[in-house]
Structures are given as structure tokens and as C-alpha cells.
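Quick one, C-alpha cells below. Sequence please?
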């Protein structure tokens, strides 16, 4: 058993309480590689922001759970080395799909887990979430649950069709499951292709997607005052990164994300965790493609991973400062 507290990590409880009260959101960035971890830590330290580093089942399969846990431990030490005496770093399991996977993560240094029972019938979702909560809380690990289904064109964690969260279910669900935070479905979705062009409106040559269902979000807030709400699928798919990828040999068509103004608005509400993965993938790929196209003789991975890391760091800082508003929000610097 490895307890997250021994690694210098924290759970989400206190940071969510402050975020809900302060009207900002904590960034939850997915990572699979050392360069992503370094960029996340550099951005969090530079902006004095709490941060959630999250690992999907796919990330564990790619990079190995033990290695990722040690990268998170390294992240805490690295943050201190960079001058942040009291970093607030969460190691979170993203989209856990079984009790066994959540337990394995809790037993191996994770400070927070998501049990995603959103595709299950309502009562089964409650029962599975409660089972994870009962285990996790023995070790002071926090648990995110999901109610409602996100749509997605390309991601294994999404369904073809979305079902918005029903506000009338949230009190019963959160009370009976005991979850610490709740991911809801209000129109976001996973991946870089969140909307088809037909679903969007053309404004000044730019495809603008339909707005998020803020009415549902506000109804949920009224039912659960002060309860931490989570938004998945919140990449904005920056056009400059998509254009760079396409300019240097990529082929990304109709990539459309969530406009940042809408995420800014959501951050001011009970939404206190915003999940971003695709934007990091785009920033990394754009920088690598550009570097290799401009330096065809380079073959040392450090030559192209360094600009990739820089580009991701820039993107993370932008999200923290200009979208989520979590800069300067560490309890102690
Ligand atoms: O929500 C899903 C995340 O973007 C993780 O994606 O399962 O491909 O690692 P992944
Ligand atoms: P994006 O694909 O929009 O980055 O969403 C990531 C996510 O929700 C991870 O759980
Ligand atoms: Zn997600």
C-alpha cells in the first residue's frame, strides 16, 4: 500500500471548497509522458495554481501505473525545486471503469479517483459509486462520479449520443452515493471533434458551436449549493494549433472545441474542475510537426520534445490565467 500523503500529494477536498467559494476552477490536465508532467508542473508553479494531474486507463496501459505514480511523486519534488514550497498537486484517476481499478489506484498512491458509472442504469451507477466511495474514504481519497452521458465522435470513453444530466436526480445521486464531486453533461464532449460543422453557426468565417446548457448547470447549482461540479471534454481546440498541424503535413478536418468564454463563465459557477487533454495533444503535435518540418536533419528526441514541452507549458499557463482563474490560488506559496 502506498499512501498519497507519503508522496506529498493532496486530495481535492480543500481546493474544491476554495474554488467553489472563490468562483474559479482547478485545471485537470491529463498526462501520459514526462514532458507533459514537466510542462504541467512548470505552469502550475509559475502561476501559483493548484493542479490536478490525471491519468486515464489508456495512460496507465501506455506508460505503466507505477511509472506514472513516480512521475507524480517527482512532480511534487520538482515543484519544490522550482521554488514552490507548498505545491498542491492531485494525482487523479480519470474515467475509472471498475471498483477494482479504483482500488488499485487508491492502494498505489492516487489521491483522487473517478468512478465513471455514467453508462450504467441509474441505480447501478449509485451502487458502484458508493462502493468506491466507501473504500476510498477510509484512506481520505476523494471520489468523482458522473451523472449524464457525454457525446463524442472519436473517444472510447464517450457514447454516440449525449444525455444531459437531469437536475432532478442530482440530490438523490450525490446523497446516496456519497461522492465528493459530480461530473455533469451539459454539452461538452471528448476529443478534438466535438461538433459537426452542421451543428455550428458561421460567424465572421468562424464556426461557432451551440452554447453549453447553462440553464441545466444553474438548476443543478440550485439543487446542490456549494457542491463541486466537474466538466469533462473541455478542450477548446485552438485554431492556431490545428492550422500548424495541417500546415506541416497533418490532416485535421473540422476540429471544433468549446469556446473559452463559455469555460470562463462556467468557472465562475459551481464548476470547480475542468478537464483538458486534447488541447495538450494538439500543442505537443503542432510543435513537433513544425520542428521536424523546419529541421529535417534532427533526430534527437530532445530537439523536438523541448519545443513541444514549451508549447504545452504556454497553453497550460493560458488556461490557468485566462480561462479558469486558478492563478495565485495556492493556500500557501
Ligand atoms: O477523457 C478522456 C481523456 O482524454 C483520456 O483519453 O483514454 O485516450 O487516454 P485516453
Ligand atoms: P478533452 O478531450 O476535451 O480534452 O477532454 C478531456 C477529458 O474530459 C478527460 O477526462
Ligand atoms: Zn473525460
Amino acid at each position: 500500500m502506498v499512501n498519497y500523503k507519503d508522496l506529498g500529494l493532496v486530495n481535492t477536498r480543500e481546493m474544491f471548497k476554495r474554488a467553489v467559494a472563490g468562483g474559479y476552477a482547478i485545471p485537470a490536465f491529463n498526462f501520459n509522458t514526462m514532458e507533459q508532467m514537466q510542462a504541467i508542473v512548470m505552469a502550475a508553479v509559475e502561476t501559483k495554481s493548484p493542479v490536478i494531474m490525471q491519468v486515464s486507463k489508456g495512460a496507465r496501459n501506455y506508460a505503466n501505473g507505477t511509472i506514472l505514480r513516480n512521475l507524480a511523486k517527482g512532480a511534487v519534488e520538482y515543484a519544490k525545486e522550482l521554488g514552490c514550497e507548498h505545491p498542491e498537486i492531485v494525482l487523479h484517476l480519470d474515467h475509472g471503469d471498475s471498483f477494482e481499478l479504483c482500488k488499485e489506484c487508491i492502494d498505489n498512491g492516487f489521491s483522487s479517483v473517478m468512478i465513471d458509472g455514467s453508462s450504467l442504469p441509474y441505480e447501478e451507477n449509485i451502487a458502484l459509486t458508493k462502493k468506491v466511495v466507501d473504500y476510498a474514504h477510509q484512506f481520505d481519497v476523494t471520489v468523482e462520479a458522473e451523472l449524464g452521458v457525454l457525446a463524442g465522435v472519436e473517444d472510447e470513453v464517450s457514447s454516440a449520443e449525449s444525455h444531459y444530466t437531469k437536475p432532478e436526480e442530482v440530490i438523490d445521486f450525490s446523497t446516496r452515493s456519497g461522492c465528493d464531486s459530480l461530473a455533469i453533461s451539459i454539452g461538452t464532449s471528448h476529443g478534438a471533434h466535438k461538433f459537426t460543422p452542421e451543428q455550428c453557426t458561421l460567424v465572421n468565417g468562424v464556426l461557432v458551436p451551440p452554447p453549453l446548457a447553462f440553464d441545466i448547470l444553474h438548476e443543478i447549482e440550485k439543487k446542490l449549493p456549494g457542491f463541486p461540479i466537474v466538466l469533462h471534454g473541455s478542450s477548446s481546440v485552438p485554431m492556431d494549433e490545428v492550422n500548424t498541424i495541417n500546415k506541416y503535413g497533418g490532416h485535421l478536418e473540422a476540429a471544433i472545441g468549446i469556446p473559452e468564454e463559455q469555460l470562463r463563465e462556467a468557472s465562475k459557477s459551481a464548476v470547480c474542475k475542468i478537464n483538458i487533454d486534447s488541447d495538450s495533444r494538439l500543442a505537443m503535435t503542432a510543435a513537433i510537426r513544425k520542428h521536424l518540418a523546419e529541421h529535417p536533419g534532427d533526430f534527437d528526441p530532445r530537439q523536438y520534445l523541448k519545443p513541444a514541452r514549451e508549447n504545452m507549458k504556454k497553453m497550460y499557463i493560458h488556461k490557468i490565467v485566462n480561462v479558469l482563474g486558478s492563478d495565485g490560488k495556492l493556500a500557501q506559496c
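The chain has a mean pLDDT of 96. The pocket of glyceraldehyde-3-phosphate (ligand 1) is lined by residues 30, 56, 58-59, 94-95, 155, 157, 190, 232, 277 (CB under 6 Å).
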